[in-house]
Amino acid sequence: MSEAATPLGTASPGLLASLDPLLREWLPRQRWFAGKGRPVTGFSPVAATELLPADARLGLYHLIVRAHQPLVPVPGAPPHPGDCYQLLIGVREALPPRLAPALIGHVTRGPLAGHTVYDALYDARPAEVLLEALRTRDRIGPLRFERDRRQEIRSGLVPRLMTAEQSNSSVVYGDTFILKLLRRIVPGDNPDLELPLALAREGCPRVPAPTAWMAAHLDGRPWILGVLQPYVQGAADGWELALRELAKGEDFTAEARALGRATAEVHTALARALPTVTLGHSALGRLVDGMLARLEEAVHAVPVLRPYAPGLRSAFTALGDLAAEGRTWTAQRVHGDLHLGQCLRSPDGEWSLIDFEGEPARPLAERRMPQPPVRDIAGMLRSFDYAAHSAATPVPGWAETCRAAYCTGYAEVAGRDPRTDPVLLRAYETDKAVYEVVYEARHRPGWLPVPLSAVRRLAVADPARSA
User: Fold this and answer.
1) Residue 183: which H helix or E strand, with range?
2) Residue 463: per-residue pLDDT
């Protein structure tokens, strides 16, 4: 299906035009919208599918739209075509009070004139439609619903939308399954499905095996839209658990060490399941060039970084110097965005890793590239730092002891301690901190001091002490 020439599945061609003025106001307010700070100037349809007819009491449309926004041109870079988003649009004549938080607006023209439209994931019936389609492996227009036939999906599970801040949307079904709907989507094999499937084939117990998934097939390519996995009932989110322990002044080193072991188990299974590569001089040169380019873009976007730029640059050039001397590293598929919030501890004390999408702001091809495992380790070390700075009452040395325990636990399984490769670790932690500065400056300015404190440390760090 082409954006320019093909009719919009089973939906009316005038649907998006009638929704356009409402979506321009509503979309930028969503937590998962990537283009904050720039107005939406219009939309291009990628696909639109009617899941429930709008002439009934409740209508439901599945939309994939490309949002157009003015961009500051980057010299040498191709024009950005705009980000694509997955929307589930509910249609009612009037919205009941319980759905008030889901309101998008009232349609005044086009095929839905006189109706109210809203984010359908807040509503039980549309969420039930998705689960039933997954259970029956349905085909609706370009949408394909698949499942692991070895796993049973019972009908009648009561859905509820998780309202915690996320870069996507999640619906829990009867404390049995959780469906993660990707909001900002791209064509291709998304690692959020690809990697858990590979780990399931390896029998890795640290990652819930996908039960079902949904995709759109357009122009001969899959667009992964959502993944259904078992819901770990009673599990504690690693971020929330760390903050609770901090608030009580409790030691977290045992959990950090166990989490390091779990991370190493996942890395070991991924290295068995998928190819590994050796990063030599040219590959490391491209990696370092990417880090340097991101730093320059960050300094331009967030001027407060400027005084630290020379020191931060040295973290990357030191890695390039080792590569020039002939040093090589092994790269493999990794989580790509690992932090405490991507980890769950079950009631029996076992840790699981979730959300393998990687950093959504980075291109899919980059997120699927093999990377040194220290990429994930650096992300977790930064997360301990975030937790320590988020505590109402600071606990001196908390982050440092957790970082050390995590690396120790990792070494117990992997057979190598990431602290024994300090230049590589400093480079990746610096790259992550620079990313965090840009993110916080754009989305959560009140959090900016957290990554800036790491920037100050990393800009003058002795690599032998950076872990």
Assistant:
1) none
2) 57
Look at the block and give the residue holding tokens 């694509």. Answer: 84
Tokens of 133: 């389609």
Give the β-pairing of 116-119 and 59-68. unpaired
How far is residue 238's CA from residue 106's CA, in Å, rounded to a whole number?
40
Contact between 32 and 168 under an 8 Å Cβ cutoff? The reply is yes
Rounded to an integer, what distance in angstroms lies between the CA atom of residue 356 and that of residue 363?
14
First-to-last CA distance in the chain? 49
Residue ranges, the chain, pLDDT below 70: 1-13, 72-80, 165, 461-467
Q: Where are the domains of the chain?
A: 15-230, 236-465
Angle between helices 253-273 and 374-390 (to 10 degrees): 150
Secondary structure letter of residue 158 according to DSSP: P
CB atoms within 10 A of CB 281: 14
* Of the candidates 100, 101, 111, 103, the residue with the CA atom closest to the CA atom of residue 23: 103
Question: DSSP per residue over 187-245, as a string?
Answer: SB--HHHHHHHHHHHTT-TTSPPP-EEEEEEETTEEEEEEEEEE--TTPEEHHHHHHHH
Residue 227, strand partner residues: 180, 213
Q: How many CA atoms lie within 13 A of 196 on its CB side?
A: 24
Amino acid at 233: Q
In this predicted model, what pLDDT tens digit does every residue of 215-261 receive, in sequence order? 999 988 999 999 999 998 899 999 999 999 999 988 999 999 999 99
pLDDT digits (tens, 9 = 90+) for 50-73: 999 877 789 999 999 999 998 765
Q: Indicate the residue type of 94.
A: A
What per-residue confidence (pLDDT) applies to 12? 65
Q: What are phi and psi of 456, to 5 degrees?
A: -60, -40
Unique residue bearing structure tokens 């407060």: 304
Cβ neighbours around 237 below 10 Å, total = 17
Give the dihedral of Cα atoms 196, 199, 204, 209; nearest 10 deg.
30
**What amino acid is encoded at 259 in this protein?**
L
CATH architecture of 236-465: Alpha-Beta Complex (3.90)
Give the relative orientation of helices 449-459 and 374-390 as an angle to the nearest 10 degrees.
130
432 CB-contact burial (10 Å; exposed 0-12 / middle 13-18 / buried 19+): buried
